[in-house]
Amino acid sequence: MYRNTLALLVAAGLVAAQRPDNTSICDYYTTALFKNNTGANQYALVSAVVNRAGLGNQTTTPAVDGIITPGMYNGVAVSLGQYFTGALNSTNRGGDSGVSVNFLDGGGAAPILEGKPANDTSSNQYKLFTHLYEYFGALLGCSAYGKTGYAAYDGNDSQYEVHKFMGLDENEVGYFNTQVGLSAASFGVTQDDVTIVANALNSVFNVKCAPAQTVATNQMTPELQSICIAESCPLSPNATCSSYPAVPAPANVTTNGTSPNPSSSASASKSGSATGSKTTGQGTSTGSAAHVAVGGILGAAALVLAL
Asked: The whole model's pTM is what?
């Protein structure tokens, strides 16, 4: 059975930059900033990176446009905010079809700017952001993941199942991954380490028809992980497209119909989103997102401002 954990992909590049070859990205930068490599400190680091990736910050070097901010990737307009506001019937809570969910119902930007996931712990926003903190803790190899101070991810182990009604293409997934890398770089994570994570994210999620695999370290069985399902998405090595059933394309909540999507052209129904041409390599974003080369370790003052 095919097995390819993202944690192992990240670990393969541990010789990069200043990190010792036996120290994960999470542990290394947590120690560099907080001195004490505790679960709480690891969680604080990862949550700060996720929050900045989500909202962006134009005062950092490099500047971070933010996942929910419209931007460009490979010369194509990308608008991921519509997946968070409930503008599309794109979540997997409706059984055989996507439904609209507002993921900014816990205070929106205000609590995130304060370093929190949301004001309301019962909100969709709180669940989404805490799941992101947990999942990225696994991806980045946090040693306290699943232990005191760092709860393990308890969401759906199949990221395909989570995202299948979004009909994402390679530019949309690439833009998301780029914002995560820019956020990490804005805290001083080196270009080599940013590249390791970006390559891992793209190789696991930004391909179509990938075989079932494990990602989070507490995941018990391999699951489908491809988030990119549009026709233009690069095909995964050892592709198993028969494992990915046809799903409806995401329709705007103001319209009635949806169209079949046999893993192709799903983004056609998304108003304002990218429907760009096929690319086969790793994309590059434009503007401030083009500059990710930042050396050195995390700046304590910068992270304090983000928290």
From this structure: 0.81
